[in-house]
Amino acid sequence: MATAVPRIGNTQVAMSNLEKGKFINYQRIEDNLAIVRQRLNRPLTLSEKILYGHLDDPHNQDITRGVSYLKLRPDRVACQDATAQMALLQFMSAGIPTTAVPTTVHCDHLIEAQIGGQKDLARAIDINKEVYDFLATATAKYGIGFWKPGSGIIHQIILENYAFPGGLMIGTDSHTPNAGGLGMIACGVGGADAVDVMAGIPWELKCPKVIGVKLTGKIGGWTTPKDVILKVAGILTVKGGTGAIVEYMGPGVESLSCTGMGTICNMGAEIGATTSLFPFNHRMTDYLNATKRPEIAKYAQQFAYNLRADDSAEYDQVIEINLSELEPHINGPFTPDLATPLSKFAEEVKKNNWPQELKVALIGSCTNSSYEDMTRSASIAREAAEHGLETKSKFTITPGSEQVRATIARDGQIDAFEKVGGLVLANACGPCIGQWDRRDVKKGEANSIITSYNRNFTGRNDANPATHAFVASPDIVTAMAFAGDLTFNPLTDTLTGNDGKPFKFSDPSGFELPPTGYDPGVDTFQPPPEDRARVTVAVDPKSDRLQLLEPFQPWDNLKPVDIPILIKVKGKCKNCLIGAINAQNGEANNIQNKITGEWGPVPTVAAWYKSNNKPWVVIGDHNYGEGSSREHAALEPRYLGGLAIIVRSFARIHETNLKKQGMLALTFVDPTDYDKIQPDDKVDITGLESFAPGKNLTLVAKHKDGSKDEIALAHSFNEGQIEWFKAGSALNLMAKSAQN
């Protein structure tokens, strides 16, 4: 008798312990890959297996790396509180009663670090009550899981509860790739992308190239997983990963913990990568078991053949790193790709005249706040305490989650930190994202800090442009806190104990996972109620923080002529133009109204143009929108009447965000044409009447002396995205579809 071949889909395994009836869909990956393999007829990388395994239409989808736009069906969505507000407001306006995929919201971004954990948390809950009430009621109304303030940082919560090998997730934060440490493709997106997936619409992603990083040797001593990504950042720079997935492989992977792999994937955002990813291995099994998900571990083991790259899979670029030879690195200041080996760092400090005194050392954040990180740092603190030392620099510790905080409190690591003068902050992002009420230096005062965070652009941590922020592993950060000096090398240098004798730190030691299991701590999760019909979403009509959305106007089909330039941006541009340097005068947030001739702040001038029905454009430099995953960075220019952002190049997430809001995101075909445009030019944009994929538009820059330049503008709009522009926004098109 013939017997049916068992299918991977015959087994049902819950996607998480917190959601009923939501199962891992390995069968979809299996079925899609059968089709894709037949079409492509070549070995596949791991990232290709997972991505193509989530294709909406594997039969007809064009698949060309770096060219095609893939339509994908993610397994879930995650939002942090700052971006969730706008995402939920947009979802509400689409008129859909329940999210199409499991979705969670995490309160981690709005808690300011000031005096310590519980007091800072209480203060944030009071200040942000209106926002938290909105998020709590909106998530309850639409079937979304809600992690209350104090739960921890979104990426750590995802790793502990929701990430799984072979999954596809999008999150409204650029460090969503942290989940790659559990073999999941997890991509940072804008809120509008999240709304698409929440509404059941496929997610569009330009088919990524694949960069392979082959790890050989074995990690040990003072070298940590953080040093792998610090080294990679130095090789690829902040733009080198753009449009690519970074896929790690090789025998060296086996010496990395699951949370260490998460650290590497997390900071891959700093090289512009779409995401980063590790193959499924026993370290992931150990972590899944420790976080009470043994059934997922068993299921992934059955599916392991599709959770690693095929033999002979081809990569667009391959980097090789020998972990046995890799030394600790320190990256910075002012950019995360200025990578310096520790042995050469003291020399660089002196050569560049960086402030040698170390004011503050900060460990934790979503990048490095695992149990392993904390136990290794605590071993350094204990050794210093044995010699009678306290930290010379201020020393702060940010637990990544309530579970990590409770576990390190139980196991004595918090005591070890506090004994040497450490201050434990709330389970939140805090100083990593600038939520830091820093009072030990004045703004403008040059100083140095070192963190185990991921991002260190000018003013990122404390809003002080003179702060030199360096990034390293928690081990190096902790050791340096006792020296109070950037030139200290814990591998070679000594400190003097209270007994007057010199000592050198031993190699740090710690536990990959807690030997007696995790302590979950306080329960901070709110599941959606059974009866959601009775829930009323809390939005005060008089609020100055929240407002129900009015749809943007569709394109008027008119040719844009004599459009003023709001600002020509020189250099990096963040914070929605307030912090952008105006090429006309070299100043920030001071621009000229080209109609009245008056000078004022960027939003004020933009609002004047809007009230006088005068659309405007921005001229930008390279990597425009860097770090702007937040929806507001695209919504604000659109709300204030902006028509187009024209730049040398875009940061990936921001370009998509602009398109979603109905703005023209355009790039100079020749980047040097940026120099031809004067801040006081008037411009025309021609070619919109035949706007089509791959067809350039033209910018006519009309100069004050009567001359003009015709400049070719490229774009990456596809047919669907052009419809967003014509409809006024992607949301307008979505709401129209929902009504039909």
Automatic annotation (TrEMBL):
**What InterPro entries is this protein classified in?**
Acnase/IPM_dHydase_lsu_aba_1/3, Acoase/IPM_deHydtase_lsu_aba, Aconitase/3IPM_dehydase_swvl, Aconitase/IPM_isomerase, Aconitase_4Fe-4S_BS, Aconitase_4Fe-4S_dom, Aconitase_dom2, Aconitase_mito-like
Q: Which GO terms describe its cellular component?
A: cytosol; mitochondrion
Catalysed reaction, written as an equation: citrate = D-threo-isocitrate
Signal sequence segment? none
Transit peptide keyword on record = yes
Family statement drawn from the similarity comment of this UniProt entry: Belongs to the aconitase/IPM isomerase family.
What's this protein's name?
Aconitate hydratase, mitochondrial
Q: Where is the Aconitase A/isopropylmalate dehydratase small subunit swivel domain?
A: 569-669
Q: Which UniProt keywords apply?
A: Iron, Iron-sulfur, Lyase, Metal-binding, Mitochondrion, Transit peptide, Tricarboxylic acid cycle
| Organism lineage string | Eukaryota, Fungi, Dikarya, Basidiomycota, Agaricomycotina
